Amino acid sequence: MPTFSYRTTPLSFKLAATAFLLLAAAGLGVAALQIYARTGMTPSGTLLHYLGDEATLQYPMSFPRMVEIAHAHAFTIPMVSMVLAFAFLGTSVRESLKRLVVITLFSGMTLELSVPWLIRYGPAWTVHLTLLTGALIVSGLFTAVAVPLYEMWWEPRAVDTVARPQEWRPEKWPPSRDRRRAG
Length: 183
Description:
Elements: H1 11-39, H2 43-51, H3 63-89, H4 95-121, H5 129-154, H6 177-182
Helix pairs in contact: 1-5, 3-4, 3-5, 4-5
């Protein structure tokens, strides 16, 4: 059975895979923008978002609202993680790097699902896990998108170093010195 290679896949496959990878990256970028708009991506802003603040009349996030958000994300996050992981697993990188990226992706996405609950109902220090969550998601996403795209579109083709006899074609050979002098 031939091994899979992004370099040799049909153009239609490359276009579909590229579109998914870029749109997944854009989707997660919009999610990060939404988090920024709500929390400022600061620990204090995140605590304010989940725990509320009496001074600004912001209520803590309610349990039904937490369930509503978790419900939607509990289906989409694992699917996006799986497809990104499969896209990366199709590359030619070492197996150890493949394992690391899969663990990074799923760990980051697992934290993305669980950290809001920890912030809302756990100790306040858990807000700092959002930094770890972001680092895992960004590094896993970047690697899972960049490496397949590189192999599909930019990886240099292998150089054929096997010596083969060339067929003699008089029109292809440069004129020899003797013929030039005689002419």
